[in-house]
Amino acid sequence: MEIDQLETFLAVVTYGGFHKAAEALNVSQPAVSGRIRALEDSVGAQLFTRGRSHPVLSPAGKALRPHAEQMLRMVATARQAVHELQPQTVGALRIAASLSVCTYLLPDVMHEFKTKHPKVMVNLRSGNSVQVLRMVLDGEADIGVARSLNHPRVETMTLRNDPLILVGHPSLLAGRKPEARLEEVESWPLILYDRGSSDWTLTQGLFRRSGLLPNVVLEVEAIEAAKRMVERRLGFGFLPQIAIAQELRQGKLVAVKLLDGEPISRNLDVVHPRHRPLGKEALDFLQALRAAAAISEPPSTGSPGRRRSRQAALR
Length: 315
Hints:
The chain is of the alpha/beta class and 315 residues long. It has 12 helices and 14 strands. The chain has helices at residues 3-15, 18-25, 29-43, 59-84, 99-104, 106-116, 129-137, 182-185, 198-208, 223-231, 241-250, 280-295; strands at residues 48-50, 55-57, 92-97, 121-126, 143-147, 154-161, 164-168, 179-180, 190-193, 216-220, 237-240, 254-255, 257-258, 267-273.
């Protein structure tokens, strides 16, 4: 049982197929098949069965999965322990993050980090979730922060839930409770942003699954622009919680509770490579990031549904 076999096994599980796992690991599909066969020979059982469209975990595969994840975490911990014994030099810390994280979460984190590490040069690059993950995998970033980042070659920790919340100016809700059914919201003027993005798709899908057509009166490119339009009473918007936490606390915006429909829940994740141990500065940055994420959520969002959190130990 070898490390690359376990990584390949988890890649097939994560991406739902041998071909996609090969693309993610940047190896050939025959190499993926060979590693899985070698792992099956090692454990003495078949790990996958053939499904209609993708391989399905067998009972043995289901039993192996948590142990494979734990073993890879232990390997990462061992690398980190050895790395911390080596002489450290002050260099650059490379961060990749989504634009919303760069705008609404990282300024406070950077302020705290630079106060403690004034000599460390921080290089910050932005992109969507796929681009952030790719920068980490390609060695262009030490740490990545975005939504839904999962890959067998990275350690993933969920910082917090960051749902899309329906918000509007308080004056638009004067005289009524801040709650409504989706069928009622269908006729409200809505402001969307970043056409084709996951946020845009999730918002459209919320209505589509109920057979409704939202009344979109304005589309803009960025979250911040959409928020400003909502503040100017031009309509309502489904905006990330991280982007509107301050406005909700100050009463500049009001969250509207949906009485039906599914909550648009999303995880905000931080990742780092399993094979490249982090230096002390990077670990300190992660601690500051976790602390900032923990206090950046308003006490009440007005959004239905339970908070869901997926925690994985950062080593």
